[in-house]
Amino acid sequence: GGAFLETQATLQIDALPDLVVQQEAMVRVFQNLIGNAIQHRRPEVPPAIHVDCTRKDEFWEIHVSDNGPGFPMDHAEAIFA
């Protein structure tokens, strides 16, 4: 969308497995995480967002990271509530 292009954001997505998921919920999660990376970027630095995953026993752990300023870990529970 507009903010993605305006900020010159980049999105790198590594190979992801085919999974059975609740599509609407997963779309919302990715929209929120990518939108937050764009909104809370470092001034004058284009957002760089990376999506990858690792296998954890019978589960897949999906990671979304960015080059933003981050946040104090003691605020994580409130941020992701």
Structural class: alpha+beta
Average pLDDT over all residues? 91
Q: How many DSSP E strands?
A: 3
Number of helix segments?
3
Question: What can you see in these coordinates?
Answer:
- 32% of the residues lie in helices and 26% in strands.
- It is of the alpha+beta class and 81 residues long.
- Strands 1-2-3 form a 3-stranded mixed sheet, covered by helices on one side.
- Helix 2 links the parallel strand 1 (10-13) and strand 2 (48-56).
- It is globular, with a radius of gyration of 14 Å.
SSE blueprint and pairings:
Elements: H1 2-6, E1 10-13, H2 23-39, E2 48-56, E3 59-66, H3 76-79
Parallel strand pairs: 1-2
Antiparallel strand pairs: 2-3
Summarize the entry for a quick read:
With 81 residues, the protein is α+β, with helices and mostly antiparallel strands. 32% of the residues lie in helices and 26% in strands.
